[in-house]
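Thread amino acids onto this structure.
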């Protein structure tokens, strides 16, 4: 009830905040030294989905340092190895339970001076307010770029790509050639030591006679979670079609399994260790979730299973990653899709 009132109030307060970028007559990119990226959301997936924007900002302004304004502690874990990220300012997940930290987070945003502030999601009231109150020469509030500019560009509706296209659109209007550059992908910076440790952890769960591994994540929040009967049928077909592969399950924080723990199950609350384990498997399959995005960021080929959320907004993109609408295919067709889209598994 309190959060509902808070969201409605913020929407009313931010309705009049102007769109676009301020003062765009000319911008010398070499003068962009301090950038703030605003995404006050605590969910794992939403924080990972800003990693392409961080890479894009670093590419466009290689001498810049990037601060993040987020919610909750996860960002410090996900980006602590990223040299482009300087400071991470956080709001507590529950504002009224930790009110002084909440106020301190907003004060810190206001106390710094930036050359550019980027709000990632235009519909975020907190994001728009943070962009408004931050002291910066230039500000991008996250509103839609011109659809005529984006019409032939890939992934134009994707939540990780839209802020990149917004940024490129504004600077392209100033004469910079940006729109056709290669899109950055989700990425978590894992050290060689972390990758080696993940490989050692994985060895405990796999058979010596099978060299490659498929990882499943059978959990998701709410209606995104597939029923146990569906997963049991899926697992049976997967074992039949890919019988020369190890199959393991990555367990969620809730330590539950939609397949009844019927394959070796790996459990950890250490996100960087989980990412390091995933980086050593050949294929990840799971429903739309933060774990799916973590798999993409770890660099493993990822197949996302979608039934209610929008694939053009959230599906894994780039390389051989893909989303599959399971409401439109039979189980046999789903296996064919996995096989056809991942020829290295043949």
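Threaded sequence (346 positions):
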């Amino acid at each position: 009830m309190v959060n509902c009132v808070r969201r409605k109030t913020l929407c009313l307060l931010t309705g009049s905040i102007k769109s676009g970028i301020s003062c765009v007559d000319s911008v010398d990119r070499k003068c962009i030294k301090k950038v703030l990226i605003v995404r006050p959301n605590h969910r794992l997936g939403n924080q990972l989905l800003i990693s392409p924007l961080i890479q894009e900002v670093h590419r466009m302004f290689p001498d810049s340092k990037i601060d993040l304004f987020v919610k909750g502690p996860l960002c410090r874990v996900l980006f602590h190895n990223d040299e482009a990220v300087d400071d991470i300012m956080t709001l507590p997940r529950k504002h009224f339970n930790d009110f002084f930290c909440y106020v301190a987070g907003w004060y810190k945003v206001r106390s710094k001076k930036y050359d550019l502030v980027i709000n990632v999601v235009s519909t975020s009231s907190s994001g728009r307010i943070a962009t408004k109150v931050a002291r910066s020469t230039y500000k991008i509030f996250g509103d839609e770029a011109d659809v005529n500019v984006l019409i032939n560009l890939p992934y134009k509706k994707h939540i990780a790509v839209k802020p990149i296209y917004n940024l490129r659109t504004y600077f392209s209007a100033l004469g910079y050639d940006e729109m056709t550059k290669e899109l950055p992908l989700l990425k978590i910076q894992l050290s060689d030591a972390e990758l080696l440790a993940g490989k050692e952890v994985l060895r405990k769960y796999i058979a010596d006679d099978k060299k490659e591994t498929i990882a499943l994540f059978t959990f998701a929040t709410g209606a995104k979670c597939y029923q146990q009967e569906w997963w049991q049928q899926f697992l049976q077909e997967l074992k039949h079609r890919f019988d020369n592969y190890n199959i393991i399950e990555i367990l969620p924080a809730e330590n539950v399994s939609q397949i009844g723990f019927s394959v070796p199950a790996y459990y950890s609350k250490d996100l960087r260790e989980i990412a390091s384990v995933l980086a050593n498997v050949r294929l990840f399959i799971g429903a739309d979730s933060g774990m799916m995005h973590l798999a993409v960021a770890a660099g493993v080929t990822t197949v996302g299973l979608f039934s209610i959320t929008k694939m053009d907004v959230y599906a894994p993109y780039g390389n051989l990653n893909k989303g599959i609408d399971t409401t439109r295919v039979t189980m046999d067709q789903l296996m064919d899709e996995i096989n056809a889209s991942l020829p290295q598994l043949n």
